[in-house]
Design brief:
- The chain has helices at residues 21-34, 50-62, 76-85, 117-128, 145-159, 181-188, 216-221, 250-261, 277-285, 297-307, 330-342, 348-353, 369-386, 425-447, and strands spanning 11-14, 39-44, 67-73, 90-93, 102-108, 140-142, 167-171, 191-195, 227-231, 238-242, 269-272, 290-293, 311-314, 318-320, 360-366, 390-391, 396-400, 403-409, 415-422.
- The protein is of the alpha/beta class.
- It has three domains: 3-143, Alpha-D-Glucose-1,6-Bisphosphate, subunit A, domain 3 (Alpha-D-Glucose-1,6-Bisphosphate, Chain A, domain 3, 3-Layer(aba) Sandwich); 149-353, Alpha-D-Glucose-1,6-Bisphosphate, subunit A, domain 3 (Alpha-D-Glucose-1,6-Bisphosphate, Chain A, domain 3, 3-Layer(aba) Sandwich); 360-447, 2-Layer Sandwich (TATA-Binding Protein), CATH 3.30.310.50.
- Strands 1-5-4-2-3-6 form a six-stranded mixed sheet, with helices on both faces. A five-stranded antiparallel sheet has the order 15-19-18-17-16, with helices on one face. Strands 8-7-9-10 form a four-stranded mixed sheet.
- Helix 5 packs parallel to helix 6 (181-188), helix 8 crosses helix 11 and helix 13 packs across helix 14.
- The longest helix has 23 residues, at 425-447.
- It is globular, with a radius of gyration of 22 Å.
- The two termini are 32 Å apart.
């Protein structure tokens, strides 16, 4: 077993190479030994390797004498909700937005908060021992997946309903969202134009990464609709598309949600260190504080609960609206967004045009996994001596009079990310040039 498959937020590997059925059996056994609870809810996305890995996980978990509730192939948020309502930990077998050869698993506590790095590391260390605790055989209860999906739909509609019907393009990308998206939106009263609805682990029509894919079919159809929504492979990230075919940034999506949500709810707003100034502006409008956090959906969920926040956003397209559901569930958030838009008389594109926008970019620099954190530490020490207004919560963020820059190591890829935002184009170009040079210089220094 390779320790590299255990990441800060989850487990990920190429099936048959880094991640095998035997590996997953050991991980299931280790999770059972780690948990105080005597049962777990398990579900999966539609990847072709998912069913086999699901069986292996259940085998390993139940060998400890503990029980499994298997709810089948559902979107991530649907499974989290089912487990949360019953106060049971949850395990979800998924490759998220990665290509079809990948798979993995995400763990959640009974309060719907994903495992933080410390918890994942404990499961990792137990798994690397490569031994199985065999203590009898636990029970496996298989729940009718349609019942689970119906429960999810009814729960969401009980929280909020639209003011009028809208025509919405729902691009499920052959991912898990296709199992429930039509049912949710049509039962609420929306007209759904479905794109790549059927879950298919080959992802034959577009990439499961909705941020990287051009989303051509959805953008073509959205011109005859009010707006569109595109989901990733397991349905936990969304991209909103206006009727002109333009994609909204996570901050623009959040701005629209917060313009309605903060009228009714108290509490601060949680945003990771990569999120743009738009979040600060809408929070300031309602007199709310923005709590900046580390990048990663597990940090998002735990911080929303810690700060009793009204809303949380992660720059990769993860969101939490705790008054709807206290977990990172972008299907729920996309439904809430649709309900908010149903109360507006303007086109989505008109609303977006009023949102303040500043020059912004993320730049990736290749850097070996075993050197990237060292590089960031070197940069961090230099920045401490050169700048006063810095944040070292996750990498190093330098706030300047005319913008900001963030330098951090990717938790999932061999690279260092530089994020820049400027008050104007000139400031943006200057910040980008200066800090790109600093990153390149630091990477070169560790190669020598």
């Amino acid at each position: 077993m390779q320790s590299s498959i255990f990441r800060a937020y989850d487990v990920r590997g190429i099936y048959g190479k880094d991640l095998t059925d035997k590996t997953m059996e050991i991980i299931g056994n280790s999770l059972a030994r780690f948990l105080e609870e005597d049962r777990v809810v398990v579900a999966r996305d539609p990847r072709l390797s998912g069913e086999s890995l699901n069986k292996a996980f259940i085998s390993g978990f139940t060998k400890t004498g503990k029980d499994v509730i298997d709810v089948g192939m559902v979107p991530l948020g649907t499974g989290v909700l089912y487990a949360w309502k019953r106060e049971i930990p949850f395990a979800y077998i998924t490759g998220s937005h990665l290509t079809k050869e990948w798979n993995g698993i995400k763990f959640f506590h009974k309060n719907a908060v994903g495992f933080l790095e410390e918890d994942n590391n404990r499961v990792r260390d137990m798994s690397l021992e490569e031994r199985l605790l065999e203590k009898g055989r636990g029970n496996v209860e298989r729940i009718d997946t349609n019942r689970v999906l119906d429960e999810y739909v009814d729960f969401m509609i009980s929280k909020i309903k639209p003011e009028r019907s809208l025509k919405i393009v729902l691009d499920c990308g052959n991912g898990a969202a296709g199992a429930v998206a039509r049912k949710l939106f049509e039962k609420a009263g929306f007209e759904a134009d479905m794109v790549f609805e059927e879950p298919d682990g080959n992802f034959p029509n577009r990439s499961p990464d909705n941020f990287e894919d051009p989303l051509r079919e959805a953008k073509k159809r959205v011109k005859e609709a009010d707006f569109g929504i595109a989901y990733d492979g397991d349905g936990d990230r969304i991209v909103i598309i206006d009727s002109d075919g333009n994609t909204l940034t996570p901050e623009q999506t959040s701005y629209i949600i917060l313009s309605e949500l903060l009228e009714k709810e108290g509490g601060p707003v949680v945003a990771n260190v990569e999120c743009t100034k738009a979040i600060d502006l809408i929070a300031e409008k309602f007199g709310r504080e923005v709590k900046r956090i580390r990048v990663g959906h597990t940090f998002l969920m735990s911080s929303v609960q810690k700060f009793r926040a009204s809303f949380g956003v992660e720059s990769a397209g993860h969101y939490v609206i705790p008054s709807i559901f206290p977990a990172d569930d972008s299907l729920a958030v996309s439904y809430y967004f649709a309900c908010v838009l149903s109360g507006k008389s303007e086109e989505l594109s008109e609303i977006v045009n009023r949102i303040p926008c500043y020059p912004f970019q993320r730049v990736n620099f290749d850097c070996d996994d075993d050197k990237k954190f060292l590089v960031v530490e070197k940069i961090k020490e230099r920045m401490k001596s050169e700048y006063k207004d810095i944040n070292t919560l996750d990498g190093v963020r330098i706030d300047l009079e005319d913008g900001w820059a963030l330098i951090r190591a990717s938790n999932t890829s061999p690279m260092i990310r530089l994020t820049i935002e400027g008050e104007n184009e000139e400031a943006f170009r200057d910040i980008k040039a200066k800090f790109s040079g600093i990153v390149k210089e630091a990477i070169d220094s560790v190669k020598q």
